[in-house]
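Researcher: I'm preparing a figure for a lab meeting and need a structural model of a single chain. I don't have an experimental structure, so a prediction will have to do for now. The sequence is pasted below. Please return the structure as tokens so I can convert it later.
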Amino acid sequence: MDVRGISYTVADTDPAEDLRTIREELHCTTVLLAGTDAAKQLRAAEKALALGLDVWIEPQIGDRPFDDVLAWIAEAAAGAEELRARYPGRVTLVVGCEYSLRLSGMIPGPREFIRLQVLIRWPRKWRARSSVEGGGGLAGGLFDRRITRVLNRRLARSVAVARGAFHGPITYAAGYWEQVDWSPFDLVGVNLYRMGDNREAYEDRLRELVRSTDKPVVITEFGCGAFTGADRRGPASFLIVNWFTSPPRIRDGHVRDERTQAAYLGELIELYEREDVHGAFVFTYWMPDFPHHPDPALDLDMAGFGVVKVTADGKRVPKEAFTEVAHRYSATTAS
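Model: Understood. Here is the structure written out token by token.
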């Protein structure tokens, strides 16, 4: 793969040490910088570029008016263009992520968490046509035409704003259920999580995705939690947490298992290499909102997707997934 990456959520702390670890220890070529503050992301991008990492810059804006997303794009595009001029060929702008889930007006539900429940628990007839378990995208469900129409209208506006200031490559991080018109974009980006027990269906979906376009295909998210059975849950790994207790607690019956997460990531990186995917971003480096705790009932890290666990005092401790990704990426670099 040309793009061997991981996503990183930009927070209030200085990201320099984490970015150095991503470059030198994980052997990534590229980091996807996600966040809600374009100025902070651009500052992090400059540090990453100076360290030798290529950068993708992506908004993580949910449950906000679409005009807020366009404002983020305008600010990020102008700053990204300045960086691109200084670091040619090393900056990519991602105009959004899973609009139909993150933003209201497409999937039913007033808030993102509720829309996610709708998506996960949707009737099997709809899911079978939209998920990687069953092949293609939204091809005829009750809300498919509405979702696709609104989604692509918003994406067209997003690209127009981005192209007004940024002259480098532009893409979008699509949900696996979304039907995107990729014609305005330079790369195809899809968050493609493997879930369930049908691994062949996932591989078929990946091959279909690569063959369906002459543009480079990048898997913008893939990952799972660190507990037994997380590999079958994929993006729904976080649902083993009861979020309505204080503090949130892991539901009974779940056992921490870092090897499950590591194997999942390693298998998919190997698959992407075999199927000539242009690039992939592990989701994710850290999740400070899912801290590790010695009490298994409070160990939110097992439900999170980070390749490092964040302790109560803020330390980042590499997990088995970290070692696996570093091995896979370093082997690719050596070859």
